[in-house]
Write a structure and sequence with these properties.
The chain is of the alpha/beta class and about 300 residues long. It has 13 helices and 13 strands. The radius of gyration is 21 Å and the shape is elongated. The two termini are about 15 Å apart. The structure holds adenosine-5'-diphosphate and magnesium ion. It comes from Methanobrevibacter filiformis. It is found in: Endomembrane system.
Length: about 300
């Protein structure tokens, strides 16, 4: 039977927008010594703004066409990137194209066909994976945008790179404070993201996270949690919002989902932060310590 203190505790936490789905996770939260965070939508607001666009001068695409094609793919995606691009297409009143054979290559990007021609949008890694060459001119722009901390996407039609688009996200106002508090509790902090190394380091530095793992695929997020649990004998909390975070959230000793995130992340979480307020993570740990002391 669940001790009364836990039941009462769960009820109290829900008043603060912290939904605890099982008593076991509240019991585990007091022993956490490692906290791993996803980046986009977890440490950042996931509310990206288009900041730069670069069109391949050797191709005849224009800005509106670039947004039209990317948005046609993105209308099938739940990623925060998708919200930004489809909103822009709506603002510009663009007519989206019909996509056949749509594929979400999770952690890399999207792919489909328009009138029989393959179109792709995603990270540089997607194009390595799909064996499409990126010329030096485009590569230099990609490096320039990512060094400034921007999530940068490449669009190709057929085998030709048509252009790139750089999106900027805002770090949540309580991210740094949350990390500071965790570190003061001797909890080791990690950020793990599918985004590129430069953008990842930029965010990690700003919020004070010590360990950064970037350019990972979704199964590698899971593998990292398992490795820290087994090799380092750590008790891990994982905080995320995306489809790609769900396996890691399930595996963690305490899985935390951001309430504004995808349904699958919320289903996988032991704890859901309804208000998307990151500092609730610290609240949950402190509360767990209090409740468990009362039980012992
Ligand atoms: P994160 O771990 O930061 O949430 P993801 O693993 O979801 O990131 O994605 C990693 C990278 O894959 C993104 O930075 C982007 O380059 C690419 N990507 C993922 N989803 C999409 C999408 N819907 N459209 C374009 N690119 C995407
Ligand atoms: Mg995310």
């Amino acid at each position: 039977a669940t001790p009364t203190a836990i039941t009462v505790g769960i009820g109290r936490m829900s008043e603060y927008g912290i939904l605890i789905k099982n008593g076991e996770s509240l019991q585990n939260a007091c022993n956490i010594d490692t906290a791993i965070f996803d980046k986009t939508g977890t440490l950042t607001e996931g509310n990206l703004k288009i900041e730069d666009v670069y069109l391949n001068p050797n191709s005849n695409i224009d800005y509106e066409e670039l947004i039209t094609i990317i948005s046609s793919l993105e209308k099938n995606s739940t990623h925060p990137i998708a919200k930004t691009i489809t909103k822009k297409a709506k603002e510009l009143n663009l007519n989206l194209k019909n996509i056949d054979n749509f594929e979400n290559i999770v952690g890399l990007g999207l792919k489909g066909t328009i009138n029989g021609e393959i179109v792709r949008v995603g990270s540089k890694k997607l194009f390595t994976y799909e064996k499409i060459a990126i010329n030096e001119d485009i590569l230099n722009k990609y490096l320039e945008f990512t060094s400034n901390g921007k999530t940068t996407l490449i669009l190709s039609i057929g085998d030709e790179i048509k252009g790139i688009i750089a999106l900027m996200d805002k770090i949540k106002s309580d991210s740094k404070n949350t990390i500071d508090l965790l570190k003061s509790m001797n909890i080791e902090t990690y950020m793990i993201t599918g985004d590129n190394e430069k953008t990842a380091e930029n965010v990690a530095r700003t919020v004070g996270i010590d360990n950064v793992v970037s350019e990972v695929l979704p199964n590698e997020k899971l593998d990292k949690v398992i490795a820290i649990q087994n090799n380092d004998q750590k008790k891990v909390m994982f905080v995320g919002d995306g489809i790609n975070d769900a396996p890691a959230i399930s595996q963690a000793d305490v899985g935390v989902a951001i309430g504004s995130g995808t349904d699958i992340a919320m289903e996988s979480g032991d704890i859901v932060l309804i208000k998307g307020n990151l500092q609730s993570v610290v609240g949950a740990i402190q509360f767990s310590k209090k409740v468990m002391k009362r039980i012992k």
